[in-house]
Amino acid sequence: MKIEEIQSQLNYLKEIGNLRTLNTLDTNLINLSSNDYLGIAHNLELKDKFYKSFKPNLSSSSSRLITGSYDAVMELEKQAERIYKKPCIMFNSGFDANSSIIETFFNKDSLILTDRLNHASIYDGIINSKAKFIRFKHLDLNHLEDLLNKYSDGYEDILVITETIYSMDGDIINIDRLAKMKKRFNFQLMVDEAHSYGVFGYGIVHNLNLIDCVDFLVIPLGKGGGSVGAMVICDKIYKSYIINKSRKFIFSTSLPPVNHQWNLFILNNMNNFDKERAKLELLKNYTLKLLNENNIETQSNTHIISIVIGDNHKLATISNNLKQKGFLLYGVKEPTVPKGTARFRIGLNPYITRKQIELFIKELKNELDTVF
Ligand SMILES: Cc1ncc(COP(=O)(O)O)c(C=O)c1O
């Protein structure tokens, strides 16, 4: 691209209030935009306990296929296999895992049916795979069923993709029904648990005993997992194919052992976060109640609470005003969410107090009533 074209596109983004910039995180603000849903990433006591146990190695220095398969990652995969009762393979990120699985296993002869609000990494994989794809209405399994009725005879290779909890809407798929549909129609199922791991322990699919129904269970660890990387739970044959064919797995330096040791530590401690989960649940119910009492609308029913504002400039003004009052709440705009649905997305965690939420909602209500 020519510099003039780049500049003109950036100018346009600025004009419509959609130019993104990077700012240093102000840790003095009450952070309502974090994905650290259980507070694991900021839990000093937990980190002390972790660091005392070994000397961290901060680089793997190569791909897993050269010398990057340290004990830490091998042990993590073994432990995940014991828990999920299916093999696990680690990717460096959820983005890599999603896009790589789709582009490695599916091709121009495949049909991919994807919830229209699925994450960008899923779309990248679909585009790279060159498969035909159709987006079904968000969480609408009747629509998916219609599509399956229409297309399942015409394709040998159909993939259905969903997330469990949706990142930008804070709503949940009916995974039980999806599993039943899989028995009726012949498709493969890929599920992304980025926003449920941790909050729902090992994840919703695991808790509902549906591991066998999911061909590719992707569990990114950068959110409730308080870390980085992604576990993919899949059959042995798929794991072997990934090791041999996935370009993002083969041609990339693997995460440092310290990250895998931390991932293993968190996996092994997953059942010790019940106190945090209970606090999060209470805070979620309290926040939803206060929003309702203040007539602030949301469709969410999880620890992710989305408040649609619509206009980019209004969103930015409210976000700046809230910052002056001590609250960090980023606005989410297109293309992360569909055009015209710019919104606030509150990510709760157990370290936010009821008092802070009360103050926050009072200020938010004031902003919504006065900023036009
Ligand atoms: C649903 C979903 N899947 C995958 C990802 C990507 O995960 P990672 O941040 O580990 O690349 C994200 C992160 O935003 C996400 O929200």
Task: Sum up the structure in keywords.
seven-stranded mixed sheet; aminotransferase; Aspartate Aminotransferase, domain 1; 44% helix; 372 residues; globular; alpha/beta; Aspartate Aminotransferase, domain 2; 14% strand; binds pyridoxal-5'-phosphate; Aminotransferase class I/II-fold pyridoxal phosphate-dependent enzyme; pyridoxal phosphate binding; three-stranded antiparallel sheet; 12 strands
Plain-language structure description:
The chain is α/β, with parallel strands linked by helices. It has 2 domains: 13-38 and 273-370, Aspartate Aminotransferase, domain 1 (Alpha-Beta Complex); 59-271, Type I PLP-dependent aspartate aminotransferase-like (Major domain) (Aspartate Aminotransferase, domain 2, 3-Layer(aba) Sandwich), CATH 3.40.640. It is built from 15 helices and 12 strands. The strands form 3 sheets. Strands 2-8-7-6-5-3-4 form a 7-stranded mixed beta sheet. A 3-stranded antiparallel beta sheet has the order 9-12-11. A two-stranded parallel sheet has the order 1-10. Helix 4 (71-84) packs parallel to helix 12 (257-268), helix 5 packs parallel to helix 6 (120-129) and helix 13 (274-293) packs parallel to helix 15 (354-370). The longest helix is centred in the last third of the chain and has 20 residues, at 274-293. It is globular, with a radius of gyration of 21 Å. The chain starts with a helix and ends with a helix. The site of pyridoxal-5'-phosphate has 13 residues, from helix 5.
